[in-house]
Design goal:
With about 400 residues, the chain is of the alpha/beta class. The chain has 14 helices and 15 strands. Strand 10, helix 6 and strand 11 form a beta-alpha-beta unit. The structure holds adenosine-5'-triphosphate (ATP) and magnesium ion. Magnesium ion binds next to loops.
Length: about 400
């Protein structure tokens, strides 16, 4: 029996004239994601995307697992393809769903007929398929209001399909329809979730990570790569750019007022990120900041970091509680990686009493004590690329 995957599209269908473009990008993303699981044909008709294995080697289980993480897909169902002939539909419905029908006590059949040339109406198809299933499964009875199990029949242009309930998929809009932005990624809990949230709104990502070896280790870097791989299951492939800030951090620690250390570092990080982002054709920055979470995330501190860049800085977690962030981190499976105990450049040299209400004038005065911009440019010149697949 030929089994396929049907993808239901969400907001994509609401985009009017852009719809074709949105669907094309979504299908390109689906195709890319399926590449490593075999050969599939992917096409769309009437807001449903069809994923059809081209040969028995194609791994449908892995494909189903991958496509449910493609943004723009709100639901998915595995389905059996039938001839557009009632006898075949009846037989395949009973056979394909045999296991579920055996376990159920009550069921109903729901038919959708988008091919209006098909000789039977939807209620007629439901009756004929229901009757056949009852004959084969005498323990069942029909309950149209609250059945244990619903058999869904879709009669479409090229074939008919049998499936049961559609399962929930990632939702959102296709990555690549919302521009490109740079996520400032640490090894923490928050920034991977922030990356995922913006990708969900169609944003293609480039990742920027700041490291300070030898204070931060190779394992810390590997951890960030692993986080991005997880995010990439939803966001697609991306480039990770690593910039080493050791010299600058040591300079700040040695020459600037201790209580301003964190905010000074954050200002330099944003400046570097903006330059790198522009060179990667990104139009915005993304961080995992949440208001009031730590000293550098007070309204005043955020104002001081934003003051050094012109690009918009998106902070999708700004109004979220830690528990809400953790819930998403668990869902997207970044949680267990994030809690691995490796140091981040933001957690070395942290001041004992960081300023929670820093003033721009004081920060600017502190910045005059070092040649930070020059050190930043030198660091950017040596940045390294890692491809996340
Ligand atoms: P996270 O859990 O993502 O590490 P956090 O709550 O620990 O965030 P901070 O360490 O203050 O907060 O960092 C705030 C944001 O700054 C992070 O969400 C991230 O976007 C960015 N950031 C922090 N450290 C780095 C780093 N080493 N490289 C790149 N960006 C970073
Ligand atoms: Mg952090």
């Amino acid at each position: 029996m030929e089994e396929v995957i049907l993808l239901k599209l969400g907001e994509v269908v609401l985009k009017g004239l852009n719809r074709r473009n949105f669907e094309d990008i979504l299908m390109r993303n689906v195709r890319r994601r399926l590449n490593k699981f075999g050969e599939f044909e992917v096409y769309s008709i009437q807001s449903t995307v069809y994923v059809i294995p081209k040969n028995p080697e194609a791994d449908l289980d892995a494909a189903a697992d991958a496509v449910k993480k493609v943004f723009g897909v709100v639901g998915y169902a595995r389905a059996a393809a039938c001839e557009k002939e009632i006898g075949d539909i009846q037989r395949k419905a009973a056979e394909y769903l045999a296991e579920e029908l055996r376990k159920a006590k009550t069921f109903k059949v729901e038919t959708k007929r988008s091919d209006k040339k098909f000789p039977l109406t939807s209620p007629e198809v439901s009756n004929l398929v229901g009757g056949y299933i009852l004959e084969k499964n005498p323990h069942l009875s029909v309950d149209v209001h609250q059945p244990d199990f619903t058999v869904r029949v879709e009669v479409r242009e090229n074939a008919a399909y049998i499936h049961t309930n559609t399962k929930l998929a990632a939702g959102g809009i296709p990555v690549g329809t919302g521009g490109k932005a740079a996520i400032l990624i640490s090894g923490g809990l928050d920034s991977p979730v922030a990356a995922w949230m913006m990708a969900k709104r169609g944003v293609e990502l480039t990742a920027i990570h700041f490291a300070s070896p030898p204070y931060t280790s190779e394992l810390a870097h590997q951890k960030v790569e692993n986080l991005l791989k997880k995010v990439g299951e939803y966001a697609g492939r991306m480039t990770m750019i690593t910039v080493e800030l050791t010299d600058l951090q040591v300079e700040i620690r040695d020459k600037c007022p201790e209580d301003l250390g964190t905010v000074l570092l954050r200002r330099y990080m944003l400046k570097a990120a903006e330059k790198i982002a522009a060179s990667q054709k990104c139009a915005a920055l993304i961080t995992g900041e949440s208001l009031g979470q730590v000293a550098s995330q007070t309204m005043q501190a955020i104002a001081c970091t934003d003051a050094v860049v012109d690009m918009p800085v998106f902070r999708p977690l700004i109004g979220m509680d830690k528990s809400e962030i953790i819930k998403i981190a668990r869902e997207i499976e970044t949680y267990n990686i994030s809690i691995e105990p490796y140091e981040d450049c933001c957690t070395i040299f942290t001041p004992k009493h960081p300023a929670t209400r820093p003033k721009i004038a004081k920060l600017e005065a502190a910045e005059k004590l070092i040649d930070g911009d020059k050190m930043l440019d030198e660091a950017i010149e040596k940045m390294k690329y890692t491809e996340i697949k």
